[in-house]
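Ticket opened by: R.M.
Priority: normal
Category: complex prediction / small molecule

The reporter submitted a protein together with manganese (II) ion and asked that the result be attached to this ticket for the collaborator who will pick it up next week. Submitted input follows.
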Amino acid sequence: MPQPLAVADIRSRSRGVVRQSYFLMTPDNMVENQLPHVADAVVKVLATPRVPTAAFGQYLVELSASGRTTAVVGADFENFLYLLDGSVTATVAGESHELRAGSFVFVPSGVGVEFAARAESRLLWLKKRYDEVAGVSRPTTIVSHVDDVPAIIDDLEGLRYKQLLPDTVDFDMAMNVMILDPGTVFPLVEIHHQEHGLYMLEGQGIYYLDEDHHEVLAEDYIYMAPYCPQYYYATGWSTSSYLLYKDVNRDGF
Ligand code: UGY
Ligand code: MN
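Result attached by the on-call engineer:
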């Protein structure tokens, strides 16, 4: 016979919360889905425009060794893939790229992408509609690896970051890896008109979101709405890093 389990205990074991200006989803909160044209894979849906302020979708795709797309996906959107672990072939406009942990691919709007695992793999997939501006050309495809992107040392001691995409106005999105030594704390509460999708890659810390503090750990996901007050305090004994989506280079209209 299973042991009786108090409902209050189930609740107390969950760190997940959903608030008006943010949500925190931990691995225990993530629910399995399947998506059309993604075979032999479990898709954990993180952010979608069903959160009224969210203008992007982000998915954790857990591929079995035979996991793959069965058609070009995301062609009406720009797409960003980041391989957390495993080994995947991504194909963009007929050209194939071998991805290993830390590889990433940016695909501009109108092209779409296909992917196929070569081993069990976990892929973060973000898609959004491109915010077109007359006279500004669309960005082009980028395939690279996080180790090949130099870290920028911030003025704040203990903080460095990698801009995986060029910081030029053709891009309407940034994907940055923020890297913090334990004990490092942002010295100000940021409030900005952009939104964030944040995936904790490693380490732990305290995230201040709106009026609340939350302990966050590797593999947690946070959505932050525009204007959500925020700062991070890296705790524990090891480096914290997180992959951070931000809509950039547009005026909010
Ligand atoms: O660039 C940013 O908005 C970044 N510093 N925010 C964050 O890490 N929460
Ligand atoms: Mn921010």
